[in-house]
Structures are given as C-alpha cells and as structure tokens.
Write a structure and sequence with these properties.
Helix 6 (116-138) packs parallel to helix 9 and helix 15 (276-293) runs antiparallel to helix 18. This protein has 551 residues and is α/β, with parallel strands linked by helices. 61% of the residues lie in helices and 7% in strands. A hairpin with a 2-residue loop joins strand 4 and strand 5 (517-529). It is built from 24 helices and 5 strands. It has helices at 15-30, 37-44, 51-70, 78-87, 100-109, 116-138, 145-155, 162-165, 173-190, 193-207, 214-226, 230-234, 238-260, 263-269, 276-293, 295-305, 312-317, 321-344, 358-366, 374-406, 415-430, 441-450, 487-500, 539-550; strands at residues 436-439, 456-457, 478-483, 504-514, 517-529. It has 2 domains: 55-391, no CATH class; 412-550, no CATH class. Strands 2-1-3-5-4 form a 5-stranded mixed β-sheet, sandwiched between helices.
Amino acid sequence: MPSSRITFLIPFDPVPIDLAFQAMAQRSDRAPARWRRPFLRWLDGVEAGWAVPLLIACFVAVWTLYLAIAYAGGGLHPDTLEAWTLGRDFAWGYAKHPPLMGWVAAAWTSVFPTSDWSLQLMAMANAGLALFFVDLISRQFVTGHKRILVLLLLMLTPAYQFHAQRFNANAVQLAIWPLATWCFLRAFETRGSLWAIAVGCTTALAMVGKYYSIFLVASFAFAALAHPGRRVYFTSASPWISIVVGLAALSPHIHWLATTGASSFTYALAHANGIAASSLSEARTFVLGLVAAMGVSAVLWVLIAGTRLKQLPADFAAMSPGLRLLVYVAIGTIVLPVLTSLAMGTDLPSLWALQGLFLFVVPVVCGTRYPIERFYTVNVTMIVAGVTLAAVLVAAPIHAVHRNDHGYEEGRNLYAQAARELTRQWRELTGEPLSAVSGDGSLAFATAFYSPDHPNNAGPFEFEDTLGLPKAAPERGMAALCFRDQDICIHWMGWVSRRVGHVVRREFTVQASLWGRPGLAREVVVLMVPPQDKAPASAADEFSANRRGTE
C-alpha cells in the first residue's frame, strides 16, 4: 500500500522579521557602525540649522549636473524656452499661460546668463526652494531627523527632478504651493494680520502661476470649514483679510483678462470636453498616476513603519490641530479636481497635481507618535544617494547618446544648429540682425533663445486661432522656420508667401552632435521676409523655384 504524506502549509508571518529589523535599528542607533557616524553627525545638525540647507544644496547641484550631462546635445525643453521667451516682455498675462513662469525666467536671466546650464540650474533651484518651503511646514510638527525623512521621501518621487526640469506653468507651482500652504497654516493658527496678508499674496501668486491652483485655494476653504477650530478662524479678521488682499493682488491680472480677451483663460477652458465617459477615465488615471508617483516612497515607508502601521488610525485621531488641517487640505486637492472633472468633463493629467505630493508625505511622517530610528533615515539617505549617483554616472550618459542617435519628437537636439544657420543666412541676405522669428512654435522659441541676435518671437503659429500673418509687420522683416516633415507649418509658409510676395525660401540640413560624435539629421525649411528696402531683386524668383519643390 503506497505511503501517504501529509503536508502542512504554514502561513508566512512577517511580524518576527519586522521585529528583528526594529531591534537592529535600535542597536544601530545605540552603537552605530563607523560608516554611519558621519551621517549621524549630519542629522545632529538639523536643529542647528545647517543639515537641511546642505541636503537641498547637494540635491540641486547633483541634479543640475544630471541635466547638463543628459541633455548635453539636447537643448532645453520647449516649455522652458517658452517661459524664457514670454518673460522677455513683462506683462500681467500672456496669450497661453498666466504670467508667473515668464516672470521667474526673466528675473533669473537678469542675474544669470542666457544659456542651457543657467536655465537648468533655475529649474532645479525652483525644486530646491520647494523642498525648503516643505521643511518650513515639517518643522512646525517635528524636530530632528524626521524633517530630513520627509525631504528624502519626496526626493524619491519624480516631481522634484524630472517634472521640475521641464520648467513651465506646472513646475513653477512646486515652490508656490508649499509656501502658500505654510502661510495658511500659520494664519489659521495665529489669526494674525501679517500671516493673513501672506496667504492672500501667496495664493494670488499661485493663481498667476496656473489656474489649476484654484483647487489649492478651495482646499484651504474646505479645510478651514472641516476643522474643529473653524468658528474661531472665521469669526476673526484673518480669512477676510486674506480674501481682500488676494483679490487686490490678482486685480492687475484680472484687468488684463478683461481687456485682452482672456486668451489664457480660454486656453485653460479648452481642457473641458464635456464627455462623461472620458472624465471618468481621466479621474481614474489622475488618482493612479499620483499613487504611482508615490510608489517608491510608500514602499519605503511601509518598510520603516512595519507593524507600527496598525497604529495609523490612533495616530490620526491624536493628530495635532495643524496636522489635521493639513490632511484636510490634502484631501481637498484630490477630491475637488476629481469632482470638477466628473462634472465638467475636463482633462485631468496627474502631473498637474505633482506639486501637492508633500501634502501627503508631511502628515504621514510627522503624524507618527512613535519614534523613527535614525537607522532608517540613514538607510533612506543611502538609497537617495545611490539613485542619484546612478542617474548621473549611468543613466545621464546613456540618455544623451541615445537621444543624439534617435532624437526627440520636437527636435530639441537640433534647435541651436537651426537657429544659428537661420541667423547666418538672414545676415547674409539682409546684412542686418534677425529681429523677429515665427513658424513652428518650438522652433521659434528656440531661435529666439539660441540665435546670437535673440530675435523677438513673432507669435507661435500653432497657437493662433487662424493661420494668419505673424505679429511682426512684414515691411520690418521677419523669418520663419519649420522642420520639413511638419506639413501644416509648411502649408502655412506657402500661404504667407502668397500674401507677402517678397520672400526668400530655403532649405538646409542640421545634424545633432554630442561630444564630437555626429547624430541624427533633419531638414529645416526657412522663410525669410526681408525688410522692404532690403529685399533682393531675385527674392521672388528664388521663392518660386523653391516653392515648386516644397509645396
């Protein structure tokens, strides 16, 4: 008779492992290994005031180096070039976006040079400033290395490096949101006039950064109403001072909207499509995108907290009034956009909300009533340092080489070459500096930046309501350029040529280059409209000959 065997399945119990890690952490804090001691001395400097600035300075410096290597042959992102271009002419508003990103770029380049590394540093300095403002919030609730842990967990999200490097209306909010939140927390707690004024000013600043910030402002109101201290706050002068100051600070931009056709507001409303099925998908993707962005940090926190996670409900119930207020703000910044999207059928990319990730990290870390061993903070520091070094030493060179060979959809690794060649041909044709450029929006932004003449942008053509003439009067002269495979832009050139008449149309090839290694090549079509007194007699013949081959 065959023998029978009975198998007992023993479920895996993570509790002993977790307790072993906690015991290891406690032993390490009592008798740390030699290699940990410099990090512990650094953590000792948190309350002395130098540890957090050192961390942020290193973060900004190393990730700026990453951008310099990864995009060595790639040029700046079109959004960054757009911000710089808009900022050249101060205004209370611009055609596509509210003005804050342009103001920041203009202020930066009034001190630093107009170059790739300079604007890359600007983008990362904005991220560093954001982390500094987050720490201002954290220090209201915790001391010591928990403040560092908040920053480290945020550094493991994509918001403060990859999102930040694309400096635009979204990225500029990275610093403004935590600053406005810090002011709101202080105003709610103290009900002081100065903090109330600060709330009005910073929320207005957030609104001229991107209109999406209305959800932050609404979340402040929601949090104040949901908080047990609402009566004391709303019967004080604080919220009403904030409202009056905020509206006063916004009034120049509101006047600009009222007197110029509100084009930036209209552009924002273009994201509303009114399709319920689509909005459901957008809302789901919005939430999942934010969860994914927090994935690495969330896993690390689970490993740090271990079985202590079961204390979360009790920790939430015992939260300080300030942290509870912050939780309500965090809930508002998720729920309100989702409800709006479902009601209006709007687009809702998760990257619009990345600047608010700190609203979740701060309460989770600062709301724990149990101590977090410094063992874990040192370990997370090593993880952040390892990821950063791998990005700089491995990922950045690989990215640069790959993009040199395969290019970008927008052609950014050809921007500088196209701008310089157009400038050379323009000077050859007219004998004058290039003063105005149009055509494909990204190429026009790039030419304004990379051309030694720094021409004015004559109106990015793809954002015009109709395929009309550029803003620059043809009699004063202008140039436009498109990549050869941009059919709509090429047809627009033909339309402009027929309307203007005295044009010169040419084509040339530009090729990417990285550390002396040739890369992807692409054809560029340029349309030059010389000033009427500079138009060569052969311009019409040259245009006709080229048009037959390109239209």
